[in-house]
Amino acid sequence: MSKRSNLLIFILTIGVFGILTTEMGVVGILPLIAVHYHISVSQAGLLVSLFALAVAISGPVLPLLFSGINRKKVMLLVLVIFILGNIVSMFASNFTTLLIARIIPAFFHPIYCSLALTVAATSVSKEEAPKAVSKVILGVTAGMILGVPITNYIASETSLESAMLFFAIVNAVAFIATLVFIPSMPVKERLSYGSQVSVLKRPLIWLAILTVIFIGSATSSVNTFITEYLETVTNISGNILTLALFILGLASLIGNLVGGRLLTRNATKTAIIFPILLGIVHLLSLLTGTSTGPMMLTILVWGFLFAIGNNVSQYWITSAAPEAPDFANGLFLSFSNLGVTIGTAVGGLFVSGMGVQYIVLGGMLFLILSLVSILIRKYMFDFKKHLFTEGRK
Question: What value does the mean pLDDT of the chain take?
Fold first, then answer.
């Protein structure tokens, strides 16, 4: 991978980190927002749920509409919208204004992220593409995991306005770096909208979509309630809880990079083994959950494997439609968010119905479904390849 490609991918990673921190960072300051605007925490939660809904709605549509425009110009436009949204959020006098200032940029979220994934993949050789993409997904993971404690710390030590300013600054850094260091990227071979949408006629793409939903549901059904699990089942709190979450986050960042390398070596094998290994770790957590030391080791492996799931999902759907990467990445973002919604709801049912220690059963259910969908696709692909080979004899 050349120095130029490395710099490009690093800038894309910063941009994705800024956008994901804007999305997820508020999770850590919802109680402060509720107090500031004299609303309930559940009302403040609309800042997260409506943002995710906007991403899910625009995911398949807006990346497609912008797919023919110079990629550098599109990325700069999206970053400007996020910077302005964060600045308006800083000075929002009421909750409605704050909500609007977040929802408008949310619709543009999939445009930047899908472009970042596409540009990373096309900036290197086909063999190196999964590794390059994994570095951009590292920005996604960092934004989701590190964005929350960083934002919480800034808001707690200074003010809500400072936390919003932090969002704006990260996006501004990405904007300046893109403007200065990324060359113009006109789209030379643009597929028509119809050609891109036509990939939905393939059974393989729908199998890939199901896999993305199942993996997203499997990870979120556990991840969403991980803090409550550690507090209630493992019975840890304070600094030990912070350490556990830090281990989870650090393992996830490493898992992202390793996942890219594994997909580069053998994508199908990695996709098949992933749900099996994570399922084993889920079962292991039922045995180690009540003991702090063993659970810390389980958390380490848990975080490592969770992150690989993102890499598998993104590769699985883009490899099903390689000629329409922007549209495929938009589908990945949209259906990943749908998986988060479904997984969180199912995880909540296990928590209320059986207790928080059984959230892993929801994860197991979706992992089994993801493995089935992966194996069906492998069988279909191998079967068609066999027919093609026989036909040429």
Answer: 85
Distance of alpha carbon 199 from its chain centroid, rounded? 23
- Distance spanning both ends of the chain, measured CA to CA: 39
- Asked if 118 and 251 touch (Cβ cutoff 8 Å), the reply is no
CA-to-CA distance for 329 and 339, rounded, in angstroms?
A: 15
For 276-328, the pLDDT digits (tens) are: 999 999 888 888 878 888 888 988 998 889 889 888 998 899 888 888 887 88
Q: How far is CA 133 from CA 119, 228, 301, 309, 379, in A?
A: 9, 32, 22, 13, 26
Share of the chain above pLDDT 90, in %: 27
Q: What is the pLDDT of residue 154?
A: 86
Instruction: Name the percent of the chain lying above pLDDT 70.
Output: 95
pTM: 0.78
Can you give the pLDDT at residue 392? Answer: 45
Phi and psi dihedrals of 37, rounded to 5? -105, 10
Amino acid identity for residue 24 in this structure: M
DSSP 191: P
pLDDT of residue 192: 67
| CA distances for 335 relative to 91, 116, 166, 329, 389, angstroms | 33, 17, 29, 10, 34
Nearest to 248 by CA among 382, 153, 145, 165: 145
pLDDT digits (tens, 9 = 90+) for 18-34: 998 888 788 768 778 88
Three-class DSSP labels, the chain? CCHHHHHHHHHHHHHHHHHHHHHHHHHHHHHHHHHHCCCCHHHHCHHHHHHHHHHHHHCCCHHHHCCCCCHHHHHHHHHHHHHHHHHHHHCCCCHHHHHHHHHHHHHHHHHHHHHHHHHHHHCCCCCCHHHHHHHHHHHHHHHHHCHHHHHHHHHHHCCHHHHHHHHHHHHHHHHHHHHHHCCCCCCCCCCCHHHHHHHHHCHHHHHHHHHHHHHHHHHHHHHCCHHHHHHHCCCCCHHHHHHHHHHHHHHHHHHHHHHHHHHHHHHHHHHHHHHHHHHHHHHHHHHHCCCHHHHHHHHHHHHHHHHHHHHHHHHHHHCCCCCCHHHHHHHHHHHHHHHHHHHHHHHHHHHHHCCHHHHHHHHHHHHHHHHHHHHHHHHHHHHHHHHHHHHHC
